[in-house]
Amino acid sequence: MAARDNENPSPSAAASATADAHAQAEAIAAGKGRPTPTRKEREAARKRPLVPDDRKQARKEHREKMNAAREKARLGMAAGEEKYLPQRDKGPQKKWVRDYVDARVSIGEFLIPVMFFVIILTFIPSVEAQTISILGLWAFFLVAILDSVILGFIVRRKLTQKYGADKVEKVRWYAAMRSLQLRVLRLPKPQVKRGQYPE
After folding, report:
1. pLDDT for 1
2. Which residues contact 59 (CB under 8 A, 6 or more apart)?
3. How many domains does the chain have?
4. CA dist 33 → 27, 29, 30, 74 (Å)
5. Greater confidence, 17 or 194?
6. Above 70 in pLDDT, residue 15?
7. Is this model's pTM higher than 0.70 or not?
8. Looking at the domain assignment, is residue 66 inside a domain?
9. Which residue range(s) make up the domain with 23?
């Protein structure tokens, strides 16, 4: 009985064998001429070594990626993007304070130019001129400090009105330090024009 089965294969087996032979003939006719790679062979071809053979090139590529990431972070911080800001600059209240300080003209932001001017005046060979310039610098410094203190009270009061007394962060020192910097040197860079106060 078994011999008869071998001599007369079932119709489905014969059809399968015919289809396989036909597919193989088509592949050869199409110019394939080689066996289909196995899954293991395809995965091996896709794998890249973790450590490249050319270490110098790998270091160069890594350095370029790091430089690009640092430049992106620098530009993001300058533009005031939240995810690139340091912890001291994060949050809606800090952004509001920055915008308020940048919208006003603070006396303290002119402190550095005045200091340079006084240093130049000290080269004048006159004791009276040198004394007056030093006293003038101290007077300007005191006025700048007073202006910063007033600014701190203003931003505190306005934030209390906006967010509520129990939710206001400590921002007086933050506002004062920003007001003592030259506008062009502030980071994040000013996002508002003079007089464009936040709501």
Report:
1. 44
2. none
3. 2
4. 7, 8, 8, 56
5. 194
6. no
7. no
8. no
9. 9-46
